[in-house]
Amino acid sequence: MRVTFTVNGEQREADDVWEGESLLYVLRERLGLPGSKNACEQGECGSCTVYLDDVPVCACLVAAGQVQGREVRTVEGLAGDDEQLDPVQEAFVAAGAVQCGFCTPGLLVAAHDLVRRNNQPSDAEIREALAGNLCRCTGYEKIMDAVRLAAARVTPSTEDSK
Amino acid sequence: MMDFLQPTSWSEALRIKSERPGAVPVAGGTDVMVELNFDHRRPEALLDLNRVAELAEWSEEDGRVRLGAGVPYARVITELGDELPGLAMASRTVGSPQIRNRGTVGGNLGAASPAGDSHPALLAADAVVEVASVRGTRMIPAAEFYTGVKRNALEPDELIAAIHLDVARGPQQFAKVGTRNAMVIAVCAFGLALHPEQQRVGTGIGSAAPTPRRASAAEEFLSGELTAAGLWSAPRPLTDSVRRRFGELVAQAASPIDDVRGSAAYRRHALAVLARRTLGWVWQDYCGGSWPACA
Ligand SMILES: Cc1cc2nc3c(=O)[nH]c(=O)nc-3n(C[C@H](O)[C@H](O)[C@H](O)COP(=O)(O)OP(=O)(O)OC[C@H]3O[C@@H](n4cnc5c(N)ncnc54)[C@H](O)[C@@H]3O)c2cc1C
Ligand code: FES
Ligand code: FES
């Protein structure tokens, strides 16, 4: 089947999609967007986290056909058109929160969603917001630092514009 | 070959389900997609319910909430915390934010896992499941909905439309035991609700029997004690023996198994602890006096 939807602001079409295929597969294998990672395909690791109609979800658990006509934003769509990194991405770099990087795209989307809603998150709120994202390298401390830093940097205007 | 069927209205969804009873409904996909990704299931067709707008709505009328089967947990938590406190608490413990953004109570009922977290809360609150087909609508009390391990009362042509629950008229609690906070399948879970207007107690136990079930003897014992001592209208602290007996009766209602998540004996013990603890919380709340029946 054919699936047409908006990805990072652009209308995209995927052809020959198998009916039982996931959004993650479509993004990575059909649309050339490998940013969202595939690690578990069962919703456990969060490395495939994307926005679906502005809500963070595991792309591996969304059936491709379910996104027909809807809007998806992946990690590739976080940076601005001018290639300027999003403050959350900058904070991950600055805080050294990236080691192997496999978990990073999903964490960036989850953290992005948190700081736009709450620019003074407590540690408990950060842990809760990132509870669906596993990282096997960092031990999470640097990630916590990065999210605190990102929250401090998010100005109300970028927060409003999402 | 598999078909992907996308009804845009409830009547169309019911018609398709009657013509294609083998089509597997997909709401949030958090159970179905795992099965597809791992080739555990190859249905002849998927029936996507995301486009049926009514399913994602809830309404309140005369003190009763009709919760559309497709309302995700995240919205139960943010929109219905006051009306349905027990279900909202249970929803908070489901998976991760990403799972709560997609997963639905209807999907939990469809999967009918004994470990599903909504079930103890639905049982305790006397929830009724509205199921429908082209033949008509049936209202099934939650206690009769679970028929076996991962089996429910749906006929092949039926879909779950909504869940009906009273707006809470007394305190409600939900607690579960798992190995860590996020992303755990419950080792066991317990839901408790006081129904002061009916002088009744509602319970639900999860992960401790082939199906979610009530602890009827515990309900009767506690409501009997509260009524006999006149505590519904003039609440006073409960005695230790009442709390202990309640915990014992809840544990006795379970028929747990040994598995990798815990032994049967541990589950029974943990259930008794959860029951005593949640009773402590709801009773403290009730004694606070903000509930109409004790004013
Ligand atoms: C990582 C992860 C963590 C999880 N953690 C928990 C947890 O902590 N607690 C918990 O209880 N569950 C948990 N789950 C399981 C799952 O999220 C829940 O069971 C959820 O409620 C399923 O809802 P859904 O809308 O995603 O269902 P779907 O996957 O869309 O459907 C589930 C089943 O219900 C059927 N169905 C769905 N809607 C209807 C309808 N309207 N009428 C008839 N049948 C229908 C489907 O055909 C399918 O059989 C977890 C899952 C994952 C992947
Ligand atoms: S690949 Fe989707 S959650 Fe792990
Ligand atoms: S940096 Fe390697 S998994 Fe997180």
From TrEMBL, chain A:
This is Carbon-monoxide dehydrogenase small subunit. Residues 1-78 form the 2Fe-2S ferredoxin-type domain. One of its GO terms (molecular function) is metal ion binding. PANTHER family: OXIDOREDUCTASE WITH IRON-SULFUR SUBUNIT, XANTHINE DEHYDROGENASE IRON-SULFUR-BINDING SUBUNIT XDHC-RELATED. Keywords: 2Fe-2S, Iron, Iron-sulfur, Metal-binding, Oxidoreductase. It comes from Longimycelium tulufanense. CDD domains: fer2.
From TrEMBL, chain B:
Residues 1-170 form the FAD-binding PCMH-type domain. Gene3D superfamilies: 3.30.465.10, CO dehydrogenase flavoprotein, C-terminal domain (3.30.390.50), Uridine Diphospho-n-acetylenolpyruvylglucosamine Reductase, domain 2 (3.30.43.10). Keywords: FAD, Flavoprotein, Oxidoreductase. One of its GO terms (molecular function) is FAD binding. This is Carbon-monoxide dehydrogenase medium subunit. It comes from Longimycelium tulufanense.
